[in-house]
Amino acid sequence: MSTLTMDAVSSEFELTDAELHLYSRQILLDGWDIEAQEKLKFSNVGIVGCGGIGCALAELLARAGVGKITLIDPDTIEMSNLQRQLAFTPNDLGLYKAETLAKRLAQINPNVQVVSINQALTAENAESMIEHQDLVLDGCDQFETRYLVNQSCVKLNVPLISASAIGLQGQLFMMEGDSACYACLFPSEHQADTSLRCADSGVLATTPNVMASLQAHHALLYLGLGKMPLRQKLLLWDGLSFKQRILSFEKDTDCQVCQAR
């Protein structure tokens, strides 16, 4: 039986020459070094939703060098998706979003391990999909799924960065550790219309891609540098006025999700 030496273990965590060249512009950044890049390489990230936000988000993380990306989405590609979902073309109509996006990421960066799950996140499978992630990124367009993702991340103590985009506006926030959660910010009993989606209200092609870029940026700061600028804060972006606000909020002492932890 072979024995794995410390030298062999440490070499597994080293960037190859090809990776050093690929990520050289990031490694040159002031405050970002090889160690930060190696942290990306050995990060597991789960993305819930492969639509307008998920497509751009996944591609940015793959190009940046996140080592493993798990894509979760049960939907197939429709003509109306092509207006904003950058990974898809008319040739992809009818195919699964997660599977098609995974193939694109593999072409963009073969160093990244991509897993596609063509299933909906449910109460029965949510924890098994989330428990091994270093970070979960939610970009779905259904409140029911958002609450389920939040609940699972709170229970499993997995950090969550949640982004939404509708019309000309977007929101972004982070839950980590014992911080306030999504249910503190948006109690389910206060949601007048939990069916609100882009399919009902419309969305400009650029809005989800702006929010995806902000979400990916925050994810990289967290994974590479351990920074959490939006922990327990809500970023509001208005695409019509170009105004952006960041609001702090507190834990809801009556929250049935994080206070029950």
From TrEMBL:
Instruction: Spell out the molecular function terms from Gene Ontology.
Output: ATP binding; metal ion binding; UFM1 activating enzyme activity
Q: Which residues form the THIF-type NAD/FAD binding fold domain?
A: 23-257
Alphabetically sorted, this entry's keywords are: ATP-binding, Metal-binding, Nucleotide-binding, Ubl conjugation pathway, Zinc
Gene3D superfamilies annotated for this entry?
A: NAD(P)-binding Rossmann-like Domain
Q: Name one GO cellular component term.
A: cytosol
Record's CDD domains?
ThiF_MoeB_HesA_family
Biological processes, Gene Ontology terms: protein ufmylation
PANTHER family under this entry? UBIQUITIN-ACTIVATING ENZYME E1, UBIQUITIN-LIKE MODIFIER-ACTIVATING ENZYME 5
The record's similarity note reads: Belongs to the ubiquitin-activating E1 family. UBA5 subfamily. Belongs to the HesA/MoeB/ThiF family.
Which protein, by its recorded name, is this? Ubiquitin-like modifier-activating enzyme 5
- What is the protein's species of origin? Acinetobacter variabilis
